[in-house]
Specification:
By secondary structure, the chain is an alpha/beta fold. Helix content is 65%, strand content 7%. It has 23 helices and eleven strands. A five-stranded mixed β-sheet has the order 8-5-9-11-10. A two-stranded parallel sheet has the order 1-2. The protein has a two-stranded antiparallel sheet with strand order 3-4. Strand 10 and strand 11 form a beta hairpin. Helix 8 crosses helix 11, helix 12 runs parallel beside helix 15 and helix 16 crosses helix 17. The protein starts with a helix and ends with a strand.
């Protein structure tokens, strides 16, 4: 027979299971699940075997232990979308864990139901897009958000052993985030640090032996686990070929994502000194650098070093913009957010289409959460409690300002980075609210007020986000029709190998080419590769070429006059010129003439891609 405590726990688990299932069903019925960008589809292709022909854990972006684990499932059952399923389980799992915690800390049935309604409203109203159009960086952010929320709302525990057991789940979420996207995890770590400090200093007795022991043990365990998985990753990539590629990858990332590619005309002395021709520079410019074997680590690092000398240097930190420039942009962004929020309120949701409306709606909810905390936890508190609340909010404002300034300094204010930042800010305030007012009060009035406001605001946001998402789905349908036509063409010509122009393979009219997560054909081998991108020149890219008996991309496309070797074909968006490709081969003493041998059409008979064979030019 179960005791009353076990029955209550089982009841909470059943309620949360039904709650989560209903959310999943609602989203599954009304929306398709997409990978957000081709970065996500490339990771999926590597793990599933669609890239090289065999499932592989060396997916480059995620740490190897996690990649190996997911690839293991692909080896067992290749037809299941394990990578997409893993990301969905992480995100909905965090929702379930948060719901379980809310069910535990709320005292009455009414507040429990209100808490679940508020969570559902926030998930669907604010973060609807993130739960159906999935990006692995955002998933890492959601795991960190779950860790912060669970840690902030954990019941106080004096004994170190029980304290560690109660916080094992948030600890594992941090490690999971670290393995999914190490950069996102580290960027969001200050929020977790603030949560830890607020919990520690919120204790009745701060510097007791027990307190010091339990927090130091928790921090040490987290660092040890992260060190272990990172060491396993280093061990997996210890092969000299992978080491060389990772050096190349790091230089490429700095150049494209942080420093920018200096123009050839204004910096010709640099390029001449490292032996990089204008034709090779064009390949860097249009991202088709996989074509040129001379674009190596040494040359990229030389360009990176050159850029570091020219860019802003603040206390040894290299960035595109100075602190002053970043502050100016940060101030302007805040003004734009307030302007958009005012338009949303005064003009019934009508805003300038150029504004990042999704991000602004979340910013508006963050502002509401600050207002709630200000009214309920600062104005209505006294003495040490008020001082603690003020310090927590000041700490949060300092963290958010520093992180946003960093993004403006490096010029990387992307949604996949900005959304996790806003999410962590909102979740941290929500955790503070629950800890300071709901968990500490015997009356339920405050909880009802907080959740009612959250539900109303989130439901208001749902309409705008849903309409934006439907527009994006229509745009994705148009883009996917083109991309699916290309993949179908390549499958139908499975004996051939195709090299695709990078900018022809990224997006159509600003909407990225991607894939549905649970598409039945998603894991089939792809007999094509991009002529650049973050996996270019990797051991995996070389293995893919070797599978088709090619040495490199340049000779795969054209081996020289009179060669009877098997050739690869080049695919580019219809109507684009290939002068840059002709000039590149001419620089290497090979005169070519691209011949359009096929055209790829959509089901609506629109010609979207041209297929070229590189032939010897006859004068």
């Amino acid at each position: 027979m179960m005791d009353s405590h076990t029955k209550r726990r089982a009841g909470r688990v059943c309620v949360v299971a039904v709650f989560t299932l209903l959310l999943v069903l609602f989203l599954s019925v009304n929306f398709d699940f997409y990978y957000d960008l081709n970065d996500d589809t490339m990771i999926k292709d590597i793990l599933s075997g669609a890239y090289t022909g065999k499932p592989n854990g060396f997916c480059i972006q995620m740490l190897y232990p996690l990649g190996w684990f997911i690839a293991l499932f692909y080896r067992a059952i290749p037809t299941v979308a394990w990578y997409g399923l893993f990301l969905c389980v992480c995100q909905f799992g965090v929702l379930a864990l948060a719901a379980l915690r809310l069910m535990r800390v709320m005292r009455s049935t009414g507040t429990k139901l209100m808490a679940l309604a508020a969570e559902a409203a926030i998930a669907l109203g604010l973060f609807l897009r993130e739960f159906v159009i999935i990006q692995y960086s955002v998933t890492a952010g959601i795991c960190m958000a779950g860790a912060v929320f669970l840690f902030l709302t954990a019941p106080e525990e004096e004994k170190p052993s029980k304290f560690i057991r109660r916080n094992l789940v948030p600890l594992m979420l941090v490690v999971l985030s670290f393995m999914i996207r190490i950069e996102v995890c580290i960027m969001l770590m200050p929020f977790l640090l603030l949560a830890g400090i607020s919990q520690w200093f919120g204790s009745k007795k701060i510097f007791t032996r027990s307190n010091i022991k339990k927090y130091i043990t928790l921090i040490g365990t987290a660092l040890l686990l992260m060190l272990i998985v990172y060491s396993l990753d280093l061990l997996a990539y210890r092969n000299s070929e992978w080491v060389r590629f990772q050096n190349f990858f790091d230089a490429r990332t700095k150049l494209y994502d942080f420093y920018g590619l200096p123009s050839y005309d204004n910096n010709s002395e640099l390029y001449e000194s490292i032996g990089l021709s204008r034709e090779s520079y064009t390949l860097l410019e249009n991202y088709n650098f996989a074509l040129d074997g001379s674009i190596d680590t040494w040359r990229l690092e030389a360009i990176v070093d050159y850029q570091e000398q020219k860019l802003s240097n603040t206390f040894g930190f290299i960035s595109k913009n100075s602190v002053r420039q970043a502050l100016w942009r940060y101030k302007n962004q805040l003004k734009e957010d307030f302007h958009t929020i005012r338009n949303l309120i005064m003009h019934s949701g009508t805003v300038d289409e150029a504004m990042p409306i999704h991000r602004t709606i979340i910013s508006m909810m963050v502002l509401v959460s600050y207002s709630l905390y200000l009214i309920l936890c600062i104005f209505q508190s006294e003495g040490r409690v008020r001082a603690g609340a003020v310090l927590k909010i000041l700490g949060l404002l300092v963290i958010r300002s520093i992180l946003w300034l960093y993004l403006y300094m490096v010029d990387r204010v992307l949604d996949r980075v900005a959304i996790p930042l806003l999410m962590l800010e909102f979740i941290t305030i929500a955790g503070f609210l629950i800890k300071d007012r709901v968990m500490e009060k015997k009356k339920n009035t405050m909880a009802y007020a907080v959740y009612t406001i959250c539900i109303v605001c989130a439901l208001l946001a749902f309409g705008g986000n849903r309409d934006n998402l439907r527009t994006e789905y229509r745009n994705r349908a148009v883009a996917d029709e083109r991309w699916n036509a290309l993949m179908d063409f390549c499958r139908e010509n499975g004996n051939n190998y195709y090299v695709i122009d990078v900018y022809s393979s990224t997006s159509y009219n600003g909407t990225p080419y991607s894939e549905k997560i649970f598409d039945e054909s998603a894991n089939l081998y792809k007999n094509f590769d991009l002529c650049g991108g973050w996996a270019a020149k990797s051991p995996l890219a070389k293995r893919k070429l070797a599978r088709h008996r090619f040495k490199d991309v340049q000779t795969a496309l054209y081996s020289g006059r009179g060669s009877k070797a098997k050739k690869a074909y080049f695919i580019e968006s219809t109507g684009k010129d290939l002068d840059w490709l002709v000039q590149y081969y001419e620089k290497r003493g090979m005169t070519i003439k691209p011949k359009c041998v096929d055209r790829i059409e959509t089901e609506s008979s629109e010609i979207v891609f041209d297929v070229y064979e590189l032939r010897t030019a006859i004068n």
